[in-house]
Amino acid sequence: MTDLEQILSEARAKVAAATQAESLRAVDREYLGKEGVVAGLLAAIPTLEPSERRAAGQGANEVKTAVLEAIEERKAALAQEALSAQLSGEGFDPTLPGAVQRRGSLHPITQVTRELEDLFTSMGYSVLDGPEVELDHYNFEALNIPSDHPARDSQDTFFCDPEGHLVMRTHTSPVQVRAMEQLEPPFRAVAPGKVFRQETTDASHEHTFHQMEGLVVGKDISVGHLIGAMKTLLRGIFGRDLDVRLRPGYFPFVEPGFELDARCPFCEKGCSVCKRTTWIELLPCGLVHPNVLRMGGIDPDEWSGFAFGLGLSRLVMLRYGIDDVRHLLGGDLRFLEQF
Ligand code: FA5
């Protein structure tokens, strides 16, 4: 026991004498290291009389804990001393600007998508997801677009296999059929996501862009319901009521189909955004074609529905006054840091 006390007091003296992190680490190694003093004490226990072993083990462990505590205390004291020295010493200028923390931000498409998801969930819609690599069946066939249909030309497709069974989805509409297969009517759902088209790009056309599909299936759904929902959507986006007008539009998966234009929110007499017409072409929509309901396993004699396909990328451009869609996915930080 006397030995142990002596070992401990020597260790404490060495700890107190250490004035730098390195010398403190040396004391640590000397006492607590693999081949250190404490390890030696523990290793000697089996050579003692059995009656002495317990007390010796306890003693060695007490030394270990006490040395460890002393080292930790000294370490904290040294760190504090170093900091005070730095703060009061020459060469430290507290007025220098600190290192700038660069923070990321949400992409404008993500911001608008989340806002719309909140708006639609508050109206009882579910938010659905669908695959970006899609089966030809969902992208075309089940949407009433058979393989010889001319509508396939208007959505130039990236094919993923020589047979053309797998495609990069050209629109979010395939999620309509997937939703019908999964959900029991009546239901409402939106599906935002990325779509791909083999396009010659320009300021308003990208090969990769975002859409948000909407689908409502219920009893006796009419064009009146569709217009009501679209007006609520526009109020959510632009913060006020906008006049809307419907023009006939052709999509094989809706009947009747429309192009919905909204009165330009930026001007009264015409501006560059609305190309001096005061109307902005915003979202194609229509009543779901009975063939599509049937393909989704829903009886068109009992149920009807409306669908819309919002051009999210174009909406983001409108919202933030972005003049070229190619900025959105260009990955240029000078552009992205503005949001
Ligand atoms: C469709 O994609 C239909 N699936 C929309 C639909 C859904 C109609 C449900 C009826 C019912 P369209 O090809 O017009 O339709 O594209 C929809 C929107 O996507 C356009 O209004 C436009 O805002 C946007 N868009 C189309 N092509 C591009 C492109 N290359 N770059 C950026 N946005 C585009």
Order of the strands making up the biggest sheet: 1-4-5-9-8-7-6
Give every kind of bound small molecule, once each: adenosine-5'-[phenylalaninyl-phosphate]
Instruction: Quickly count the domains.
Output: 2
| CATH architecture descriptor name of the largest domain | 2-Layer Sandwich
Q: State the end-to-end distance.
A: 70 Å
> Can you identify the CATH class of the largest domain?
Alpha Beta
Mean pLDDT: 91
Q: Uncertain runs with pLDDT below 50, 5 residues or more?
A: none
Q: CATH superfamily assignment of the largest domain?
A: Bira Bifunctional Protein, Domain 2
| Number of H- or I-type helical stretches | 11
Silhouette: elongated
SSE sequence, one letter per element: HHHHHEEHEHEEHEEEHEHH
Q: Approximately what portion of the residues adopt beta-strand conformation?
A: 15-25%
The biggest beta sheet reads: 7 strands, mixed
Q: What's the alpha carbon Rg, rounded to whole Å?
A: 35 Å
Class based on secondary structure composition and strand pairing:
alpha+beta
Helix content: 40-55%
- By CATH, the topology of the largest domain is BirA Bifunctional Protein, domain 2
Number of strands: 9
